[in-house]
Every structure is written in structure tokens, then in C-alpha cells.
Write the C-alpha cells for this entry.
Amino acid sequence: MNMRISTIASLLLLLATGSSLSADPLREQAQGLFEPIPSAVPALPGDPATPEKLALGRMLYFESRLSENSDISCAACHNIGMGGVGGPATSKGHSGELAGRNVLTVLNAVFNKSQFWDGRAADLKEQVVLGVMANPAAMLKTRGGPIIGDSAANNLTKQHIVERLKSIPSYVEAFKKAFPAESDPIVYDNIGKAIAVFEATLITPGAPFDLWLNGDDNALSQDQKAGLKIFIDKGCSNCHNGVNIGGGAFARFGVAQSPGPELLPSDDWGRFAVTKNVADKYVFKVPSLRNVELTAPYFHAGQTMDPRKAVAIMGASQLGQKLSDGEIDKIVAFLKSLTGRQPEVMLPILPPNAFPAP
Amino acid sequence: MNMRISTIASLLLLLATGSSLSADPLREQAQGLFEPIPSAVPALPGDPATPEKLALGRMLYFESRLSENSDISCAACHNIGMGGVGGPATSKGHSGELAGRNVLTVLNAVFNKSQFWDGRAADLKEQVVLGVMANPAAMLKTRGGPIIGDSAANNLTKQHIVERLKSIPSYVEAFKKAFPAESDPIVYDNIGKAIAVFEATLITPGAPFDLWLNGDDNALSQDQKAGLKIFIDKGCSNCHNGVNIGGGAFARFGVAQSPGPELLPSDDWGRFAVTKNVADKYVFKVPSLRNVELTAPYFHAGQTMDPRKAVAIMGASQLGQKLSDGEIDKIVAFLKSLTGRQPEVMLPILPPNAFPAP
């Protein structure tokens, strides 16, 4: 009797599991809209990864001497241990210098179709080359903002930084090893290539949503599944889709209803600065929602810490719909399922400035 | 014949090695003045290390939410990957906010007899409690300077920070595990205790000088040995001695001859701010010379990047002697032998601010 019951139980379990894998309509719909983060690091076209280039890129990512005043590194604003952003303050605008756009996460950035809020960089290398090397004040003031890559100040800075790296024996060695075919490897472009190779490793596979997408029914709670369904049915997934659940398209913020000047400052015209096309006024890149639990504050002006408020604003401004508290709670529960395994990175030991040999 | 020669050779080698271990007068003299960095992490009285407390301390060390504006962590100024200091900029004073004293390294700080340039903190925990938690501007303006631990602003900040940590579920968990005997473990003092336990692990054993001190003749070059002899004979080791080759005593900067206002700003009275004793005017802690290769710039005002210049200044201001270029080169060669194995630290994954549960 007992045996029979347990046998029946196992059979039922088997059936349940089997059927869920093949015929869960929500999963089938989701699989058509989203892709899991791959577990393997993606290769970068024209920038093959080698252990030496990766080691150099990790050093440069944490290297504050890449800024004119040697006081700000990639890691300063893109803290790998904090969701790949700088934490609340960088967008609080608590000091004039920290005004500008909200920091976008470096995690999974390799999967975005363009970089920066206005998509002015095509890939990670270009993002580094355009974004990293202005002098810190300029970089902070225009962080993610107007193109600074071509300004005279920035070119001067680029030259300083290359000279600075050339003056540090360990970097001369490291660049030789990372770019063995080049006679003069310490050039600006290679700084970008090495950092891009490191940044491509900063991916977060294994999110509950991805486990569920791959067939694990128990990876999501009922509320999270309900939230996903609302996310799709209401139209959030029209823009937030693909591997990064965003990062692939541009959209006008406030297409249905303006979110107001605090969230949409009138002096930041977004993608217009890149295309000069009037139709791109107040158009921004649809940000990835991967690890959104870790990347508050939200929106390009970074004025919202509360994910519930952020979801409500999106419903109104982009979809022209007032979402109910229950709908918002379920969507936020779903968003929490987008947090993947955070990359564990060993802090690099950086070389000292030139010191006389013994 | 060949055999005989090789036998004699080995005998001579044996003798040489044997004798160097027992009777190298320079080593015997050095062993009386200096101690190697131990390979084991020292225990902190009243603050026993546990894996849980160590994990919490590592998180808090990198936690910018310990500052009022959530924009500066211990690691921001004490970069473990750069000799435990912030690199050139922190002392360049390139912005008003960054004025103040030169950052002292966190590496081997556990072996100093007191903390800060004026020795106002007795140990690492007190250094954290006095130094960390003022609002960033105040912290930077007075970094290492006047005591800020008792100011109203700072007490307010302390309260904010405790409340902030209590609002982050993962920290509530982490403090419970780190201080299991306490009913309300998120208190200011425990922040200091956890960070101190982590900082005590940041030691750099294995420096060539330590290997030589322990009997390895080949760990130092001839120039480095000559430099050590000059370092002792000229009197540098009167203050720079012990495990940290400094960090154990106080001395008036310019006791023999003033180094001038750039290196000794007249508005920074040093230890006088702590003791109110006129004899302590312009008295500062003798800094450790461990890893000095990595900790430029030098002196409390941080106005010297060049180790040769720094040695020349010390000779004149503290010993009243003009060191020759040859003497300076040899001393600098010796100083390079004080660079030990740098600690390898995994960047902690920091918890997000509270996010609704699924």
C-alpha cells in the first residue's frame, strides 16, 4: 500500500516535471522573448582574449592613473562588488562634480547592442576610449553625457596617460605580453581593448529567471511567474527583451506621458546629442534589467531608489497605464529573479610608479 | 683533479653559507634593530578573528555606505592593490577636498604602535572609529588631521550609518554571525572591530630584507647591503626600526634643520593637536618604511614623489647631514628590499539596499 502510494507519487512527479518542461505556455512565450545569460564569456570581434590581455585589463580597470589626476578608475564608478555601479551616491548628485547621468552597470554590458545612455559607443572598447580618459572633473561632469572623446583636453589627457603608463616598467612588460605582435603596444586603443576583454568576463549567469527559462519550474515563485506574465502582457517586454532584458533598443522617455522634469531634465536631450535628429530628442537606450535589484537608483537621471516607484513610472510614462499595487508588487518580485551569480574578482596588485632598481 | 676541485668548491660554498648564517656582523647588528614581518596574521586583543567577522570586515572595508554620502570607503584612500595607499592623487591636493595629510598605508599598520600621523588612535579599531565615519568632505578635509571622532556631525553620521546598515538585511545577518553573543550587534564599535580584524590580515611577509635577516645571503644585492649599513651608521635606524622599520616612535620633523614650509606646513602642528604639549609641536609619528617603494608620495604633507629626494631631506632635517649621491642611491636600493608579498584580496560582493522579497 505504502509502496503503491509512493510509486504513484513518483509517477505523478515525473509527469509533472516532464510536462512542465515541454508545455508551459508562459515559458514558451518567455523563451521567444528572452535569452539566458550564457555561462561562457563571449568573444570580442577583433579583440581575442588571452590570459595576458585579461590580466592587463583587470589591472587597468582598477587603475586610477588612467585619469588625469590619478584619482578615478573604472572601478570607482562601476563597482563590480555592487552590481557594477557606484552605489547610491554617484547619482545622488550630492556635489556639483557628481552631476550627470546615472551610472550604467558594467555587468553583462557586453550583451548590450550599444553603450552609454545615448548609445554613442558601439561596444565596450569604444566606451572605454570615449569615456574613461577625460580629466576626472570633465569625465564626471559629462559622465555618460556629451561626447568628450574628441575634445582637445581629452586628447591631451590621452597623451599624458600613454606617457604615464610608458614610465611604469611593469606596464611596459604587461602591454608587451598582452600585444606581443606590436612594436609599440602602449597605445590608447590597446588600453580600451584590454579593459574590454576584462569587462566581457563580468557576466552574471545562473539567475533564477534563467534557471526557470531553462526548465527549472521551482526557480521562480508563483508571484514571480505572475509578475513575468504581467511584464509581458502589459508590454514591458516590447522594449525590455533579449539576453539583457533591455540594452538592445532606444525609446523616448515619456512617450505616453512625461515623467516630469526631475526624472527627465529638460537640458539632457539624450540620443539627440549623437544623431542631431530631432526625433531623437529625449530618446535614451532601454537599460538592461539584469541585476536591477543591485543597480538602484533608476533612470538616466538616477532620481528613483524605489523599484516599485520605478515600475509605476514606467507603466505611466511608457505604456500609459496605471499599474495596480498588486501588479507592481508582482513585477518587482519578477525583477528580483534577474539577479545572477555576481562575478568574483581578485583585486589586482598594481605596479608602483618608477622606482630606482636595486 | 676535477673531482677534487669540485669537492673543494662545495666545501668552500658550505663554509661560506655556514659562516654567513652564524657570523655576518651586519646581519647580527640588523637583527638587533629590526624584525621580519611574521608570516602569521597577528591576533587582536579583545577582538578575536572568526571567518564570519573577517568576511564582514572585508565587506565593510570596501563599503562606501559607511560614509554619510555613500561615496567613500576605506578602500577608496587605502587601495590594497597600490601599497595600501590611494596613489599619487590623494595627496596631490588637486582639489580643495583632497587637502590634508598624506594617506598612511594600511599594509602592516597592525604592527604600528599607534595610528594616524599624530598617533591619536591607539589601534586599528580606534583608527576606524575616529577616522572612517565623518561625512566625506569633513573626513577628507581633516583626513589624518584634527580629531573628528567627537564632533556632533560625526556622531550624527555614526547614527545614520548604524541605521543604514540595519536597513540592509544581509548586513543584519552578517553582524549576527560575526558577533553571535550580542543581541544588538550592529553598533558602531563592532564596525571598527570587524574592519580591524580584516586589516590585520593585510601584512606583507617575504620581503628580500626579511629573507636576508633570516639568513639568505643572496636576498640582498651588494648595494642593498651597503645601503643598510649606511642606514644604520648614519642613524636612520634610531627612529626607523622594529618590525615596521618605523611606526613605533614620534619625532619632530626638522629637528636638525627645517625642511621648509612646503614639506612642513606651519598650520599643521602634528602631535600637539593630541597632547596640547608645546614640545609636541611639529612632532609626527615616524612612518613605517615597509613597502615604501609603493607608498609615494612621502612625508605627512605628501609633497615628495622622489625617494632619492626624500632620503636627502631626511638626512638634512633629521640627522643634520648632507648625504652623498652614492650614499642616497645605496639607501634607496636598500629601501626597495622592504617590499614584501602584497596581500591578494577577493573583492567582496556587497549587499544591495533593501529590495522587496519575491
In short: Confidence is low (pLDDT under 50) at residues 88-99, 134-152 of chain B. The two ends of chain B are 85 Å apart (CA to CA).
